[in-house]
Amino acid sequence: MIQKYPNSFARFYDTIYHQMRDSTDHDYFQGQIRKTSGKILEVGAGTGRMFSVALDNGADIYGLDISESMLEVLYKKIPATQHFRISQQNITDFTFDFRFDLIIAPFRVIMHLIDKEDQIRALNNVYNHLNKNGIFIFDTFVPDLNQLINGLKNQKDFEGEYKPGFKIRRYVSTTPSLINQTITVNFHLEWEEKEGLKHDDWILPMRFFFRYELEHLVERSGFESNYDITGDYRGNKLSNDSKEFIVTCRKIR
After folding, report:
1. What is the pLDDT of residues 6-17, one digit of tens each?
2. Which of 7, 61, 234, 240 has the most CB atoms within 10 Å of its CB?
3. H-type helices in 93-160, by residue range?
4. CB of 45 within 8 A of CB of 64?
5. Any idea of the CA torsion for 3, 12, 244, 48, to the nearest 10 degrees?
């Protein structure tokens, strides 16, 4: 089961990730969207970091997310006449009565699926919603072995203003489980309000993947051997320096 974002994290999501993440993956996914003339689906659309830009640029894009709190932020960004494009659904069992030429699941969506049964269900559900020659792209990080052994202890990974004169800080701790191939992430938010300092925590389990596990996973799905994996958002081959797995799957039948 994918974990839903609490209200406080949805509120500050854009403040944090537009700064932390846009320079990493934004141009890549927007480029894939621009190359697609047909219908597009973003799985895990969240607050619309990708979706709202693509819609503004004229893409025939639809989006889904499991977290109501994230979608509430997204609804406010787009015209009411376009709200039909957004739905609260899960990657494992979403349904549409039409198909897509491109489906994307940016920023670790697959890593929220802990059980292998859900992973296969998700891949096959995506496969069934693609047109012939359609493409599915998802990403995961390349596991850092040091962090898998030692974890992180209350590391501040973000500090900035969410509105003039008011700061937000985020601290991250992780507890790895090697036998279960999971990382339990504890996010701690602190933010300033007129009445004083506020805080909230969110504990999130994530599944990490290695290269050949990803290959076996995709090959068990309807995509079979019709995929490739690159090591970054510029299309470079996997190497010992790679930080990302970018998986591109194709429906050829």
Report:
1. 999 999 999 999
2. 61
3. 116-128, 145-150
4. yes
5. 80
Q: Which CATH number fits domain 7-142+209-250: 3.40.50.150, 3.40.50.300, 3.30.200.20, 3.40.250.10?
A: 3.40.50.150
Q: What is the pLDDT of residues 146-198, one digit of tens each?
A: 999 999 999 999 999 999 999 999 999 999 999 999 999 999 999 999 999 99
Eight-class DSSP state of 188 = E
Which CATH code fits 145-207? 2.20.25
CA distance 120 to 99: 19
- For residues 57 and 40, the answer to whether their CB atoms sit within 8 Å is no
In the block, residue with structure tokens 């007129």: 194
Q: Is 51 helix (H, G, I), strand (E, B) or coil?
A: helix
Write out pLDDT tens, residues 188-230.
999 999 999 999 999 999 999 999 999 999 999 999 999 999 9
Q: Which of 66, 90, 115, 93 is nearest to 217 (CA)?
A: 115
Chain centroid, CA 227 distance in Å: 19
Residue 81 makes CB contacts below 8 A (sequence gap 6+) with none
**Any idea where the domains of the chain sit in the sequence?**
7-142+209-250, 145-207
